[in-house]
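pasting for the record
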Amino acid sequence: MDKDLEALRRFSAAIGADPAVVQAAGGNTSVKIDDTLWVKASGLQLKDALAENVFVPLRLSGVRRRIEAGEDEPAKPEVLEGKLRPSIETSLHALLPHRFVSHTHSVAGIAFAAAKDGRQRIAARLDGLDWHWIPYVMPGVPLTRAVAKAMAEHPADVLVLKNHGLVYGADSAEELEELHRELEARVALPVAPSDEPDLPQLQRVLAASPGWRLPVHAKVHEVALDPRRVALATGGVGWPDHAIFLADRIAQLPITAEAVPEGETAKLALVEGVGALVRADLGPAGDELALCLALVLERFPADAEMVYLPPEEVAALMGWEAEAYRQKLARERAAGG
């Protein structure tokens, strides 16, 4: 195996194992070796990069030629081998000039990217780096086109994607690892303290709520224990994978609730001052995105206002075939298929 591809596998497995950086099948990495672009496959997880093949090879020159031609699907026709589907963000990886590229859903990065004045807040943190703030657009080719416009103005090694995450590139694996560490250190935010959930009361609510269960990650309860975090969580959808795996709304129940109302369609329910419940059929990816929500909100600045994705963008994400494929693959892998 090429040493650069092996280095990418090690880096990917390391960041993929950190839920504060990557959750479920989110995030993607790549390396360019001659005219081959190796990019993470859609629906697979970076944390598995050392245990299985999670990368797809594509003809780099072909993808770039299709991007320049304005094609809406520049990646799939250029897959060189295998049946894996390349990442939704493959065109972005091909566009960027760096040998190594990483896109993460850093929870601290999202906390800045979802804030109304996030650009101003993060600017001082990134002083000295070549970076761009990219206004929100749909992931995939629309995002690539927005980045291409920004990169034409001046090259950059770091992209802050509004309501989405971070992208950064370097020309060696060592430089990529160092940039990753530096970025996470620069954007780190203090974690707000939290109370403990009322598990006995939550168990009583659960006993009267068929079809619901406790979240896998205990930290999710903390969202329900702070009124501001409840308001932020139920105010809308802040980033794409939230829409994909937690749908378009989170239920808010009063502290006096005795059960989740029959017919409730949300995937996550917050019982104020008590704790959280999730739908019994919520898969591992949904549990990880619930954790992501908790990790973002405990870092979200106390004096910041959150900006949510417009309803039409949320609907587009939830109805997107590419994201339906990711969800299907996540369900199959969870079931051992």
